[in-house]
């Protein structure tokens, strides 16, 4: 009896240590941290459905690496090249996104996916010196609807017992309405198009190639990913959003088969916009300025994942560590990404 108990104890203890030996890809760390995509493939015939929520919080302006108060942001625009923020300056913003992500394994090494996006964008502003509604008062604009639709194929180029190398041949379709107007800035007097960061999509077809290498260990997994977002040509408003390049590296630690935690470092480079929407005067507000869109951001990701009866819950908090922005822009303070997914 005692020998039996010891045996059971050993099996439990050993089981919790040496979990997952049989299948390293079915633990709580089977997907990358919540902020990333394109890191895994599915078996032939297998579907995955995911609901993903993201919110990005941006509070206060930044010129280069220097933080500016609302009054300083208005003053900055008086002498910047080009002159801007005469009508208003953004002061804070939340960029919320609901996403429906569907994946299907076609062969051992090819998985197709699509993602439908519903952004909801809210921006607070302070009125500038040339605003007919009076300088110094605040107003808020809001926009929401369908975003651009992501589609793509994941090609597993190499795989062995504990490695995956996956090429992402992705892109986005311009399904978002990019031209909407508002009367809020002038307190109802004039109708103006919403500026660039308030728009729901890029208006162009974008190529989004990327590549991910992932390695599984007994007690965790490591991954690195290079992912791009490259608009092709100009949209019908005669501009293109910036190119985006993301380099991510992460480690997920498996605490039990059903629970893991992760740390991630993200380098994000963005270029300025190309072309110009003919109705977006630079002098009005900094969010109309094409050359004030690029920059570099270093983010940290702290995440956790739980795998419960086949339901994967994945959450990540992403504080910004360092940001160097072209011209003047709202700084990104932090984001949260949470997802529920299930494969069947
Ligand atoms: Cu999936």
TrEMBL record:
Family matches, as Pfam families: Phenol_MetA_deg (PF13557)
Name the domain of life: Bacteria
Quote the protein name from its UniProt record.
MetA-pathway of phenol degradation
What is the scientific name of the source organism? Crateriforma conspicua
């Amino acid at each position: 009896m005692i020998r039996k108990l010891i045996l059971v104890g050993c099996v439990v203890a050993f089981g919790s240590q040496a979990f997952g030996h049989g299948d390293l890809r079915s633990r709580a760390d089977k997907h990358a941290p919540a902020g990333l995509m394109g890191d895994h493939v599915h078996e032939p015939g297998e579907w995955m459905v995911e609901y993903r929520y993201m919110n990005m919080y941006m509070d206060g302006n930044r010129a280069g690496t220097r933080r500016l108060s609302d009054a300083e942001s208005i003053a900055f625009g008086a002498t910047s090249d080009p002159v801007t923020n005469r009508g208003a300056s953004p002061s804070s913003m939340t960029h919320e996104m609901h996403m429906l992500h569907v994946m299907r394994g076609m062969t051992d090494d090819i998985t197709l996916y699509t993602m439908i996006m519903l952004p909801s964008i809210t921006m607070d502003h302070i009125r500038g010196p040339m605003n007919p509604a009076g300088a110094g008062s605040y107003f808020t604009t809001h926009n929401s609807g369908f975003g651009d639709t992501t589609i793509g194929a994941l090609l597993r180029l190499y795989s062995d017992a504990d490695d995956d190398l996956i090429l992402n041949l992705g892109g986005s379709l311009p399904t978002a309405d990019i031209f909407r107007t508002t009367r809020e800035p002038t307190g109802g007097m004039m109708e103006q198009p919403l500026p660039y960061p308030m728009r729901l999509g890029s208006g162009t077809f974008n190529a989004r190639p990327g590549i991910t290498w992932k390695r599984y260990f007994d007690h965790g997994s490591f991954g690195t990913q290079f992912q791009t977002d490259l608009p092709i040509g100009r949209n019908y408003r005669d501009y293109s959003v910036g190119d985006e390049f993301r380099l991510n590296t992460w480690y997920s630690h498996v605490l039990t088969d059903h629970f893991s935690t992760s740390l991630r470092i993200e380098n994000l480079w963005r270029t300025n916009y190309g072309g110009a929407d003919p109705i977006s005067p630079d002098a009005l507000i900094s969010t109309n300025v094409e050359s004030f869109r690029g920059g570099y951001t270093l983010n940290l990701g702290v995440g956790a994942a739980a795998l419960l009866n086949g339901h994967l819950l994945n959450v990540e908090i992403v504080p910004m560590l360092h940001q160097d922005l072209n011209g003047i822009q709202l700084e990104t303070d932090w984001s949260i990404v949470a997802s529920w997914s299930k494969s069947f």
